Amino acid sequence: MARIPPPVAAVRTAVRRGLADLPTGALVLVACSGGADSLALAAAAKFVGHRVGLVTVDHGLQEGSDRRARSVAAWARDAGFDPVRIATVSVAGLPGGPEAAARTARYEALTATAAESGAAAVLLGHTRDDQAETVLLALARGAGPRGLSGMPGRRGVFRRPLLDVARAQTRKACAALGLAPWEDPHNTDPAYARSRVRSSVLPVLIDTLGPGVLGNLARTASLMAADNEALDELASGSLAEARSEAGLSVTALRGMPAAIRGRVLHRWARELGAPGGALAYGHVVALDALVTDWHGQGVVHLPAGIGVARHMDDLVRVVPSHIK
Questions:
Q1: Sheet holding 51-58, edge to edge
Q2: Contact (CB, 8 A) for 131 and 152
């Protein structure tokens, strides 16, 4: 019996573990761009033996992207994936820069495809290297624990089974399996922050601190994710305790540790209707000042036209007509 190349075995083991809880016969979709990471992921998922389909997203941002999508779909059909879908999206008019807009469109398309096909999970090909890049980008923008926790292994229908697998392993797995990955030119385009981190920052860190830096950054994300989960659970109970007839009790808030109070205020702001993508650190700091540094300041303006003020011993929402 031929020995399975270690990179192939590593990817298969990661996928097997990532799908272990799914019932027999559950449909799994692989999101595949044709790059080495998602191609190795797709091959491993097919080998593991679940019902496996594939979806490839055409963002329309590059010349020939439609041909690339058809090529990936044709490979998937020949390899026995079922169903195989091409999701064509438009990023025009979506908020954020090109990266953010493409990501939003991609996840919306993947979510819709999963719902239409009845898939139990959608697999994403993010690797340990992607996680390390995410942590560095979070550090650069001054993110807190939530940002430093990186990409979750699971969220909703999405799963990332390769977060403990190096990018080099997926490339070697493709080579061992005779698969020819597509090289996305965006991955080396210096116009994108992640590309600059990948091509310039990480090589310097590896050269200076050693190859273990990638694993250490990814491990930091895992540790922070565990801490966040515990803190979020505490914050959920604290929010319930802080509720008053008017809004939130300042006395209850003042008695909380800062890490819990910040999460409580963030959750409450989201409940009021502030969109998560627009709710920034500064908004939460301003809300916190109403509790811990009260000196008669006025309304705190949150995204979506939401106002919060302090009234007596409560934080209250201010209706738009009363916001000055």
A1: 84-88, 51-58, 27-31, 121-123, 158-159, 154-155
A2: no
* Nearest one of 210, 198, 179, 184 to 106, comparing CA atoms: 184
121-123 and 27-31 strand pairing: parallel
Residue with tokens 């009845």: 118
Tell me the chain's radius of gyration from C-alpha atoms: 23
Beta bridge partners of 159: 123, 154
* Cα–Cα dist 157/249, whole Å: 36
Task: Tell how strand 51-58 and strand 27-31 pair up.
Answer: parallel
Contact 184, 33 (CB under 8 A): yes
- Going from the first residue of the chain to its last (324 residues), give the mean pLDDT of each consecutive group of 10, the final group possibly shorter: 87 96 94 96 92 89 82 95 91 68 87 96 97 93 88 96 96 96 80 87 93 93 94 96 97 96 96 89 96 94 95 90 50
The rounded distance, in Å, linking the Cα atoms of 160 and 220 is 17
Cα(first)–Cα(last) distance of the chain, in Å?
Answer: 77
